[in-house]
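From the shared-data thread, chain only:
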Amino acid sequence: MAQKPSIPKGTRDFSPIEMARRNYIFDTIRGVFQNYGYQPIETPAMENLSTLMGKSGEEGDRLLFKILNSGDFLGGVRQEDIDEKNLSKITTTISEKGLRYDLTVPFARYVVQHRNEITFPFKRYQMQPVWRADRPQKGRYREFFQCDVDVIGSGSLLNEVELIRVIDAIFKKLGVNVQIRLSNRKILSGIAGLIKAPEKLTDITTAIDKLDKIGLDKVVDELLQRGLSKEQIDQVLPIIELTGNNIQKLDSLEKLIGNTNDGSAGIAEMKTVLAYFDKLNIESALEFDPSLARGLNYYTGTIVEVLAKDVKIGSVCGGGRYDNLTGVFGLPDVSGVGVSFGADRIYDVMNELSLFPDEVLHSSEIMLVNFGEKEAAYSLKVVEDLQEAGIRAELYPDAVKMKKQMSYADKKSVKFVLLIGEQEMETGKYTLKNMQTGDQITASLPELIENINA
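Structure, as tokens:
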């Protein structure tokens, strides 16, 4: 007996209704991106590991899907590396490529490779799948789509403001209530400076980025494991537990780390960004959160994370400012900022809250019943005329019982069924049945087209 086929954990098939809903999300996001002047690009699913490694932090490197070299991939592996289980050395020998972890690093590579063709500042959007060798769970998949929007080649904080407006516009159109959390990497660097441990910045950010997931006590435990003393942790805790409104938090923070260069710069940038929104119509809640780290090494300034307020699922969008990501590819001092929308998590949120419009499924609007060979041949021309009039139409391919054909139309949510038998062929008057109301009319094709489009 043949084994039942399956797909890898953390991946999914999508039915027609699921694809219709996903495309509704993609079309909404794409429309807002284009409305703000961003242009599309695409990059390959696989990149050289030299491009991917070391750009997304230790977690990013660990979660990269690596691709075996073609041919005798074991040919260059030394026996002593196998005996000593030197996995790092073996991996770099047998694999030169990997599936992209995100869209930001490939974008930076693209900018450097095509810099002579690009007009800066370069505003691009990209909507493609990414892969992570993560443990599958609700809202976390091994293959998922990201919808990225970035502007590179400008250090202006107006770009951060625009991206927050993009976030607000997209979730407003999708009907999802969100909270936009903001921080700044320089503030985190100021915290490391305060405790006189700048070399521990990555350890601090990696730990406190897990605050929402594991709680304060476990964050403290992790900071201890990463080499911070109890005295240093006692200095960090008041910072990540600040209360009050955004300005009150920033004022309190200024008293704590305002004497550090990075800290004062980060606070000033955060105040500038928030001040712009005093005169703008932003419906989403904006919250400054100094514990927000987002754990990626390439962020250097503003950090953004978006949470759905009505569903617990993790972030549905996130990003930030990166001042020198292109530098690792040979193009230094090019600042960029971008955010990434997690289409799969947005889908799960909208599905749970029943936010998809009923008309999102683009099924056929009308199906012609097949009464036999002669009627089918006649109906083909009618189908053609309907399609040329911009109506989604199909002819049932087999002359089977009417009940089966009507059941097909009902299951596909086809709104109208057109019946063309011998009498209709003779008179040129066709019977149109509304599948939702049960009403029927008999009219000529031009009259029916007008009725369907009404």
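Residues 370 and 398 are 6 Å apart (CA to CA).
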